[in-house]
Specification:
The complex is a heterodimer of chains A (103) and B (392). Chain A has 103 residues and is an alpha+beta fold. Chain A has one domain: Alpha-Beta Plaits (2-Layer Sandwich). Chain A has three helices and four strands. In chain A, a hairpin with a 2-residue loop joins strand 2 and strand 3. The longest helix of chain A is centred in the middle third of the chain and has 5 residues. Chain A starts with a helix and ends with a strand. Chain B is α/β, with parallel strands linked by helices and 392 residues long. Chain B has two domains: 242 residues, Rossmann fold, CATH 3.40.50.970; 135 residues, Rossmann fold. In chain B, strand 6, helix 6 and strand 7 form a beta-alpha-beta unit. In chain B, helix 1 crosses helix 2, helix 1 runs parallel beside helix 6 and helix 1 packs across helix 7. Classes of the chains: A alpha+beta (103), B alpha/beta (392). Chains A and B meet through loops of A and helix 8 of B.
């Protein structure tokens, strides 16, 4: 698939645009990092995690990174800090805790 | 040539049948209900191949039209008044995506107070939505306009509204000359959209967030597409004349040569005014009529050319802007003529709201007043509310 966003470094003039606000490729949200306005960040403790995957299935984005059926971390480029993962994490494990985002 | 007896609604439904669109999604509303009701009979009887979607509101109907059009289908629908108001949000989304949907509309006043009769407040309220607008004067023109509008819309990637006056045209039986189905099919041709959302081999992103860096460029590109509409319309209208023998200019002049004054009006009232022009001519008075047929995009050059030759022009506005400065046709026409070295005096007559009848005598009265204005050069009243009780 042609990656318009990576190829096109300069902003296009109106004459160069496709009709409507159509983008001639799919899944362009990958290029648009939306995790930069988070006020709280989830912090995942790999030692405490029991791999129930509740956080993965309830994340409203797809910010819980999973490899080979196991949680491996959090994608901070897309996580909005909603805290659902920390809320759903079983209390006995408490592997995800929310912390204030400091930049 | 086949001649039928049909009402405005029947005529528009018949044009839709001959177009045989891929999808019609609609919700009924007086006085436009018949258009899709009759069309749904064509669907049920297998006379068209159309997928008919009976939606639960006008907002849903036009949304389904949007989806179908984005998928690459040829799409038409119908509505009126509150229905168009409820569609308002999606009108902008359809035009912003350059989707050539055609609405067979019946002009009816907007609530409140609730009323089912004619004025132009519904479509005049959607002037900025990016849809071509054609105001028809009779059933024949409504039939022809649906076919012309579809061709223009699909050529330009701009959606279109063709409208008739509630009940006055929509429910009045009239003589209708129709083309053969094959002639209409050949005229509109096969719809070949540039993009199809259902093209799974070439996936695309529809409706993305568009912020400060690109929104303005996309809007500029939409305005550019709109700027092509008038030229395309003129070509399509000429080709349609070759096929049907009927020609509809964007702005029609009737007996304007040698006249000092004119009425500028749209819809069925323009047809009534033609009768008055003839009547006054028989009495030895020379007055003209200019009919506004296209109001989006504005046929600026045509309107300038038509109106600049008069000493005074009376605008007939079948809606008000609530600007306390007259109706939309008045305001926009004055704007268009501002750059002329020699401008006519222009006064406004807001009339016929909520279906208030406008009769021969009313139009004669307007011609009398505007003739007096031309003679004296003095305007007694810039905006007149014609036929309202309690007015001086």
């Amino acid at each position: 698939m042609k990656d318009v966003h990576v190829e096109c470094q300069r902003l296009m003039d109106w004459q160069e645009l496709a009709k409507g606000c159509l983008i001639q490729e799919a899944a362009t949200s990958r290029h648009f990092k939306t995790g930069d306005w988070r006020s709280m960040r989830p912090e995942w403790d790999s030692e405490a995690c029991i791999q129930c995957l509740f956080c993965w299935i309830t994340c409203p984005d797809t910010a819980i990174e999973v490899k080979d059926g196991k949680v491996t971390g959090i994608d901070y480029e897309f996580c909005k800090g909603c805290g659902i993962c920390a809320e759903i994490c079983p209390p006995k494990a408490s592997a995800i805790k929310m912390a204030r985002e400091e930049k | 040539m086949k001649v039928l007896a049909k009402t405005g609604n029947e005529a528009m439904a018949y044009a839709m049948k001959q177009i045989n669109p891929d999808v019609v999604a609609a919700y009924p509303i007086t006085p436009a209900t018949e258009v899709v009701q009759i069309f749904s009979n064509y669907v049920a009887d297998g006379e068209v191949d159309t997928e008919f979607v009976a939606a639960e509101s006008e907002h849903s109907a036009i949304s389904a039209c949007f989806g179908a059009s984005a998928a690459g289908a040829r799409v038409t629908t119908s509505t009126a008044s509150q229905g168009l108001a409820l569609m308002h949000e999606i009108l902008y989304i359809a035009s912003g995506n350059h989707l050539p949907i055609v609405i067979a509309l019946v002009n009816r006043s907007l609530s409140a107070p609730i009323n089912i009769h004619c004025d132009h407040s519904d479509t005049m309220g959607s002037r900025e939505a990016g849809w071509m607008q054609l105001y028809c004067a009779n059933s024949q023109e409504a039939y022809d306009s649906i076919i012309i509008a579809l061709k223009v819309a699909e050529s330009c990637g701009v959606p279109a509204i063709c409208s008739t006056d509630a009940f006055i045209i929509s429910h009045s039986m009239d003589r209708l000359e129709v083309l053969e189905d094959e002639e209409v099919q050949k005229f509109v041709g096969e719809y070949k959209p540039q993009y199809r959302a259902l093209d799974v081999d070439n996936p695309k992103t529809y409706g993305p967030l568009d912020l400060q860096d690109y929104f303005f460029e996309h809007k500029r590109s939409q305005i550019h597409a709109f700027s092509k509409v008038l030229d395309t319309y003129n070509n399509v209208a000429k080709n349609y004349e070759k096929l049907s023998g009927r020609y509809y200019p964007a702005v029609e002049e009737y007996k304007t040569d040698g006249a000092d004054v004119a009425i500028f009006a749209a819809g069925s009232t323009a047809d009534t005014a033609k009768e008055v022009v003839d009547m006054l001519e028989e009495q030895g008075r020379r007055v003209g009529l200019v009919r506004m047929r296209m109001w989006r995009p504005l046929p600026v050059a045509e309107i300038k050319a038509a109106l600049s030759k008069f000493k005074a022009v009376a605008i007939m506005d079948r809606s008000d802007t609530m600007a306390d400065f007259g109706g939309p046709v008045f305001l926009e026409t004055r704007g268009m003529l501002y750059d002329l070295d020699k401008r006519p005096i222009i006064t406004d007559y807001v009339y016929g709201l909520g279906g208030r009848n406008v009769e021969i005598a009313d139009i004669v009265h307007v011609y009398d007043e505007i003739t007096e204005v031309a003679k004296t050069g003095k305007v007694k009243k810039l905006v007149t509310y014609l036929g309202v009780r309690g007015e001086e």
